[in-house]
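Mods, move this if it's the wrong board.
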Amino acid sequence: MSNPEELHTIAREIFEEALRACDIAQAFDRHLHFEGRTLVRHPSPRLPAITQPLEGYKEFFAIAFGKAALSMLDALLERLPDKKHLEGVCSAPVIPKKRNRHIRYYAGGHPLPNEDSLAAARAALALLKHAKKDTFIFFLISGGGSAMLELPREKKISLDDTIAFHETLVASGATITEVNTVRKYFSAVKGGRLALAAPQATKLSLLLADVPLKDLAAVASSPTLPDYSSLAECAEILDRFHLLEKFPTAVRGYFEQLYRAQGEAPGSQTDQQKAAMAFQHAQFDTLLSNHDFVNAARDHAQALGYKVVIDNTCDDWDYAEAARYLLARFHELRREHPKLCLLSSGEVTVKLGDHPGCGGRNQQFALKAALDLARYEGEPLAVLSAGSDGMDGNSPAAGAVADTTTAARARSYQFDPEVTLARFDACTLFTSLGDSIVTGPTGNNLRDLRILISG
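Not the wrong board. Structure tokens:
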């Protein structure tokens, strides 16, 4: 029987091994390679193999944005045979010390856009405007890209209003798919508009999916894939979460104007032909998804001798509801399998109060779990919840790990776990206990992983 400290170590090891298994450079090599000046995309269960000669292309563009932008761009640049005719834009969490002279780098904001987010979007659109039939474009897209590459369609909307718009959406309690549906109608680069900016060029979008695979169009709010959502769906989300009244005046006015134009005739035949051409020359591939992440965790837990069960039922649920569901399942399963590892990938939602403290959805989930585990004092149980990007909300941590002693230890440090939970200040508590998981930015983004272990 393991003690709490040993369970913490095991849970962290499973999480860290899953991260290591999802190396982006290795994922590139599994999906594509270059044979001289020919691009070869390997077949997958979802997509056929493609062989693309590159001799006829006079220039290459690389547009990278999101939390994994630097890792994805470095992997491409290491393999791309022709860098002489390359230009690009990269919006990542930080500007690297070592930079490629053909790429313009920006430190885009997340979870809220910043000035560099807007500058990067302007630079990308300006570059794409010059794309021709003999241009080949690599779009390297990962989660976080919705904030790191952003530009309002309405030029009168300021950066401050754009930040407030994103902040309101993030705190609304809406699912990531719902949030991204709204963003598509706000943005000049989302909802397929990056692809539309270069209709004649050949385009390959390489995705790191931080959304369910059935919702690939939601990655970074679908900048290069066709948008199949409707304005009616956007309006329903805005109404259900009472968002219009919370938006800045300029943003609210923009959406109200969209509503008034809803009955107008669709775009011209030229616009429709441009869209058809843009996506006719577009291909995409998913380098990694959270399925790869959770399956890597499964493999390592099994190697450690655990009975592993994967349950992603609570994806996009409220964190408290998800904690109740997973813990009930966990306690039920461990009666039959004392040495158990229950894995759950995806994301939970948190609807923030007026004055939230330091933390994020993973630490909030872990603290909620700690209150449940306190009822099983003396039993070998632990729960870890952490993000693959290394960031959880507004905290410096990726997440946290809790056990049956967490609540009692917190009280000995003068914390009230229930009050801390209500204040959305879980990072302060877990940091004081030494139970925060701090990885720093990982250069990856494959959603979150929850690990519930016993034995």
